[in-house]
Structure formats: structure tokens, C-alpha cells
Amino acid sequence: MAIRSVKNLKEFSTANERFEGAHLLCPGCAHSMIVRELMNATDDNLVIATNTGCLEVSTAVYPYTSWDTSWIHIGFENAATAAAGAEAMYKARKRKGTLKDPDAPVKFVAFGGDGSTYDIGFQWLSGAVERGHDFTYICLDNENYANTGGQRSSSTPVGAHTSTAQAGRVSYGKKQKKKDMVAIMAAHGAPYVAQLAPNKWKIMAKGFQKALETEGPCFINTVSACTTEWKFDAKDTIHITDLATDTLMFPIYEIINGHELNILYRPKNVLPVEEYLAAQGRYKHLFKPENRHVIERIQKEIDEKWEYLQRREEAKV
Amino acid sequence: MAEKMELKSTEVWDGNYAAAQALRQAQVDVVAAYPITPSTPIVETYGSFVANGYIDGEFVMVESEHAAMSGCVGAAAAGGRVATATSSQGFMLMIEVLYQASGMRLPIVLNVVNRAIASPLNVRGDHGDMYAGRDSGWVQLDAFNAQEAYDLNLCAFKIGEDINVRLPVMVHQDGFVTSHTAQNVHPLSDDEAYAFIGDYKPVDEMLDFSKPVTYGAQTEEDWHYEHKAKQHRALMDSYVVIDRVFEAFEKKTGRKYKRLETYMMEDAEVAILALGTTVETSILAAKQLREEEGIKAGVVAPRVIRPFPLNELRAALAGIKCVAALDRSCPMGAMGALYNETCGALATIPAEQRPLVTNFIYGLGGRDFAVDEAKRIFREQKGHADVGHITTHVQQFSGLRGPKLGFYESKRS
Amino acid sequence: MRGVLATDKRGVRELGAEDLVGWDEVTQGVVLNSFDIEVENPAFLRPEERPYSDFNSYTATVASWRVIKPVYNRDICIDCQNCWVWCPDSSIISRDKQMLGIDYDHCKGCGVCVEVCPTNPKSLLMFAEAEEPEEALGKWPEKKKKAK
Ligand SMILES: Cc1ncc(C[n+]2csc(CCOP(=O)(O)OP(=O)(O)O)c2C)c(N)n1
Ligand code: SF4
Ligand code: SF4
Ligand code: SF4
Ligand SMILES: [Mg+2]
Questions:
Q1: How far is the alpha carbon of A274 from chain B, nearest alpha carbon, in Å?
Q2: What is the ipTM for the molecules in this complex?
Q3: Tens-place pLDDT, residues A103-137
Q4: CB–CB of A15/A40 below 8 Å?
Q5: Which of 3.30.460.10, 3.30.70.980, 3.40.50.10260, 3.40.50.970 would CATH assign to domain A9-315?
Q6: Under CATH, what is the fold of the domain C62-138?
Q7: Which residue among B71, B216, B219 sits closest to A88, beta carbon to beta carbon?
């Protein structure tokens, strides 16, 4: 396995980009920051499967591809299975001696948005992880169906406005809690599961490398700030992500072998969630007096979750 | 290395077992599958081959048929031989991915053990699933018995993987009547069968890292149409390779296949056009009628449903007096698909050579289709032929309880 | 304005300006090859060493998406590579741990690089698309005093 040094950014920056420009993602889109970092974290050959969504419709539009690796998109729900099928073929051909270069190191990766990961492709992901294929699944979690114009997903947090869970005269946006995908994937017994964010580039790169190195199915939920649907200025993607991790809206942690939980980032200064919410148009309505209670609820749930994660980490169970 | 299996020159296999044996002999690299009646035994038999060292490839038991075909697509794009099996509801769940497989030109072999589609739920054989595949861009081969299920599987790999085709292929057989009925089957030896198919030749494989390749790109209005036309052309042109493979197979085994099978059509006056096990039933009926009543009956059966053998069908039917197209799938609000294909073919020849064409819906949900019923249909066609027009509804339901059900009158002037 | 290290093929076509070939010339199975000829692992090849095919989006430009553009000031830059790691459009060109400049064929002008640049004043600033880089450099602000 050819790991890239991520000791510091200077060394990391010697990686030779395999994700090309002139893709069609929005200016400032975090999807590509995450994808670039994954691809730069290793020099191994990659077979990448991608679910339908912003990443896919922006990086392989005939007659262009932005991928300098093997890449496949089948449908909205089945990238995990596409990667699993390719991985199975790799094993079979390796055994039979029909690979062109049997010694070339290769990693199998699948990308999905939260729509495909938490909702429509959940079963495909669960099946592929249960079967133990040697691959890494990365969810680009922007908490909505961005490609189709910003509808709710089961990853959309409480209080967010989406086009199908709207804030209006009698509604404060989405009522239901975000699904805890990290816990669900850990419960599969996957050897490596993590939640990472691109603002913490080194933690994220190391997490990617750990997942790629680990034999068996690994799952990583990455926070992917969406300038278009979260409604913030394109230049602020990293700033918003900083707020996400420093308010603990998105805690950064890993779970090894389904139980050993390690917190990977502890903000020196935990910020009130209001600061994160106030920076995005999708939460604007929460600052109306009648919706204040929702902000309180969100803060309370963040505090409880953080407490829980810390206890899990301490208890080492 | 996988163990070889010693086979007798005549084995007693049902259609499922025959298909599973063909998959084993093809040394498929990846089978990704999900069980459903009546195709389950193909998957189970293959599983027993795996468990006993007869398979070198990977056997991936996924969590749904959609995933089965998704896994097949991922595996095929990675440059090896791929196959699976399904029926009915499983086939319906696969449909999204069937189109994706053919659009990506991946030569996967899918055994479809034909079964009715719910609702109401039914595990028995009809052609609802087979018909649902007809626009999906796959080559569709239809086996009428267990021997053919075996033979056509071997041919399917060779057709689909041919460098000039590169399309996925379905091999159909009727649920239960073929899939679960033990019959004599003459298999090839493992070595002969593999030699007939040949090694898999990868095209645009994802595991050749010296040529990174992107599969599944988006195309909008400025590109989609050209791609679909190219794919259609490849399927249309695949008949050349199909003929060549059938010829090679005949040389090897003496068993002859044609894209359109015809029986007693040389001097036929009336005919039945059908698919699946109904073909053998109709042949029996035609023979009896010829002997007993002097009715010159014949049978026409598309062996290859896609690409549709339009020229051959037209040639077979030109000049006869009346043909009944039998559809074992309810067209719901229209004429049956075989009827439409037939009329389409016949519309391209001079009117005086065109037979009358009627349509029967029959055998839904595994309702038996007996020789007597075929005979009754032949006699009725003879009646139309004698008076020179269709004397019944154009579409009728055959073998149905309750008042007679039919639609459309023929218009005589 | 091509920016540094522009190779022959980089950004030579506007999106949508491709040859609309007929059905007989589109690729079989809609596949797209990233390169024209066989390559060693591209992870070991710098972009300027790669045999990009016309299907590679590297050969296309999205420069027309920009209304404002980042301008790079070498004199202040500390080569921290923040801009490199967070540019969503692979448009910060770094070689041998050095920031060399901006790939204006692929930069969409999002401004992320400017936001994450840590120097004072910043080594990257946004200017109107029409502004000449030399002029922009002439307008560079002074070091900002920290507000007490
Ligand atoms: C079976 C199916 N259902 C619906 C769609 C429409 N669709 C395409 S992408 C998408 C949303 C994608 O959301 P997500 O997975 O979160 O990715 P994002 O675009 O947000 O990155 C939807 C609803 C589809 N392509 N296929
Ligand atoms: S809509 Fe959001 S996720 Fe999609 S490309 Fe734009 S910023 Fe990225
Ligand atoms: S403006 Fe955006 S796209 Fe352009 S170089 Fe800076 S970060 Fe990259
Ligand atoms: S972020 Fe600023 S200082 Fe750092 S490398 Fe880029 S331009 Fe130079
Ligand atoms: Mg999303």
C-alpha cells in the first residue's frame, strides 16, 4: 500500500492529483474537497463507484470524465454493490491469474450522497458491508438531496428547511432527527467506521488511509457543506465546516471493530450551535421567536450526544 | 483449480440443473445472485458446486435481485465472465439495472426462469417477466426444454462476449414445466464445453490500470440519442454472430438452432406462433391434426426474441392462410406482444400474401395449456382460413373459466 | 489567461464546444478513457506528463463560470498549501512543496483559497475577472494591524 505522507500539508501537496478540474460541481462545493483528499491520500490504483447525485452528474458527463482512475456509476442506490462486484471480480481473476498486472495494488471505494447512503441505497450498503467486501464507502453528507434541488433526506437535521420539509407559517422545517448512520454502520461490525470533516484535513486524510489499509468494509461519513442548499457564500465552505465541528454539530470520531470509540477532535473552544445555524440560510427561520425552542432542542441534543460519545470513549466499549 | 466433473453422455436433469451445469462449465468468474422460485435451484446447485470445489470464481449471495444485477454489472466492468439467475418479482426488481447493463455493453448471462408477475402473487410459469425484458437491450434466447436450457446457456456466453456483440444475454425457460421437470439431457464434457465458449476477452476493463476507464457517464439531449441508436444497432446486428454461434454449436453437437424455429411449415395452411413449452405442445397438436383431420398445421417459434427475427417470421408466414399468435402474458389494454410483432412483420409484404392473424391470451399464472387446447385453436384458424376472414374476436382468452372473453371484431370492408 | 504550467491540452475547449459526432462515432457502452495511451499509475505522473485524452475534463475549461478571480502574490506566500488542500477545483498548482500559481482554466472563482490563506496580508485575493494580474499586484493591501 502506497500511503502518502500527511505529516504536514507541504508533504501532502506533492501528491499528483487524479481528480481533474472542469467538473461541474458548484464553486466552493465540499464534495470535491473530500474526493480529492481521498484520492491524494494514496498512490494505489483505485476502482471508484459512485451513486447518482451531485458528484456523479458533475464528474462524468459525456464526453468528459474528471477521473484518472477506474470509475463506475450504475444507479442512485447501488455504488456499494458495484464496488463489491468489482472487488469480487478482482479476487476471482487474481486466483485464476487473468489480471493484466496481478501485483498492482488496488483499493475499492464507493461514494454516495446522504440520499443514497441514508435512504435509497441503505440496503445495498448494508448488504455489501455484511458480506465483508474489502472496500471503503464514503458518504458525502450534505444533509439533503442536493442534485435534485434540495429535498429532505433522513440525514437532514431537525429544523432545517428543505423543499420537501419546508419552513413556513406553521412549520419550522424538518421535524425528525437525523439518522445516526455512524452508529448503524458500527453496529454492522465493520472494522473501521468514522465521521470526518474536510476542515480537519489531517484527521480526515489519516482516517481515509486507515480505512483504505483496513481489510474489510469500512464506512466514513464526511461532512460536506453545500453552498447551494445550505445557503452560504461559496468562499465560506471551510468556515462553515469549522463551525460544524466546533459547535459539535458534527463531532469527529471513529469506531473500531464496532465498539472502540475514539474522539478524534476536541474543540478548544466549543461554540454555541447558534453560530453555526445563523451562518446558513436553511436555518434562518429558527431565529423567529416562535422557533427559538428548536434551537434549544438542537443544542440540548448536541450536548447529550457529546456527553454520550465521551462516555463511550472512556468506557472503551 | 476447480475440480472437473465426470458427466454421462445422457443425464437426467431438469432445466434448472441443466442451466447450473452450463454455468459451471463456463467457469464463470462472478455469480452474484438472489434466490426466487422457480429459479432458486440454479443458485442452490451452483452453491453446491462452490461448496464442493467445482468453482474457482466468486459466488456472492447478495441481499436482493437489484443488488444481484448491480454486482454483476460491477463485476462485468471489472473484466470477467459473469452470470446469474432470477424469475418474476426478482426480475422486476432487477429491471433498472438490466437497462444499465446493456447500456454499458456488458456481456452478462441471466437465466430467467419464467414466472407470472404479481399482483396476485403466483409462483407458476407464464411469460410476464420475459415480456418485461423485451425493451431492456438484452439478447433474449428462449429454451423450450431442459436440453435447450443447457445448450443455449453455452451459446449465450459465446454470443454476448463476442467482440462484435458485447451485450448481455437472457436465457429463458418456463418455470416448473421446464425448470422442475427431469428430462434427458446430453451434456458436453467440461473441456469440450469450455473450449466451445472460449476464454473471456476483457474490453474496457476497470482492472487494467494502464487504461483508466469511466463507466456510466451521464448523457443529455445532445448525446443520449446517438448512444441509444448505437446500442440498438449492435443488438440488431447481433443476429450475424448468433447464427455463427448456432452453426458452430451444431457442428459440435449435431443440435441445430435457428433464430426462428419452424415446424411443418413447408406446406402449412394454418399456424400457431408461440414461445416456451407451448411450442412442443403445439407441435404435438399439429402432428395429430395432420394425421387425424388432414389439417395442414404448422408451428412457428422465435428462438431468439431479441433481436426479433422479423425477416424470418415474414418468410415463414407469407402465403399461409391464418396464424394464431399466442401470448402467455396479459397485455393489459392492448393486443399481445407476439401478435403485434407478427402483424408488424406481415405489414411489410404484399396484402395477398398476408395470412389472417389472431391473438390468444392463455396459460396465465401457470394454467395448463394442453394438446386439446392447441388443437381447438388450430381448428378455429382453419375455419377462418376456409371462409377467408376472422369469424371470432381477434383477441380471445383461451382456457379461461366464465363467459367467453374476447376483444375487437375483424373489419371486412 | 492560462495561469502556470498550462500544458498543450489543458482547458483547450469550452464545455459544450465538442465535436457532436454521429452514432457511429460515439464510444461503445458510453465508456470514457482518461488517457490516449497506456500509462503507468497516474499517481506517479505529474499532470504535465500525462497523455490526457480529449475525454478528460482536464482538456476543458470552466473559466467562463468566473466573475471574480483569485490573484496570487508570490512575495508574501509561505507555501503552507492551505489553498492547495481545499481548492475544490484542483486549481492550485503546487510542485515540490511550492505553490506555483492558479490554473485559470479550471478555477471557478469560489474564493475558498483566499479565505484559507493565513498570511497577513493574504497571498491570494479576489479581483474582478477583467483585472490584469500585474495591476492587481500593484493594488495589494498593506499588512493589517491586529485590532486590539
Ligand atoms: C431510483 C432513483 N430515484 C430517484 C432519482 C433522482 N435522484 C437523483 S440524485 C437524487 C438525490 C441525491 O441526493 P444525495 O444522495 O444526497 O446526493 P447529493 O446530490 O446531495 O450529493 C435523486 C433524488 C434517481 N436518479 N434514481
Ligand atoms: S448543490 Fe451542493 S453538493 Fe451539489 S454541487 Fe452544489 S454545492 Fe455541491
Ligand atoms: S477561487 Fe476557488 S477554484 Fe479558484 S483557485 Fe481558489 S479555491 Fe480554487
Ligand atoms: S494559502 Fe496562501 S500562503 Fe499558503 S500556499 Fe496558498 S497562497 Fe501561499
Ligand atoms: Mg446529499
A1: 40
A2: 0.97
A3: 999 999 999 999 999 999 999 999 999 999 999 99
A4: yes
A5: 3.40.50.970
A6: Alpha-Beta Plaits (3.30.70)
A7: B71
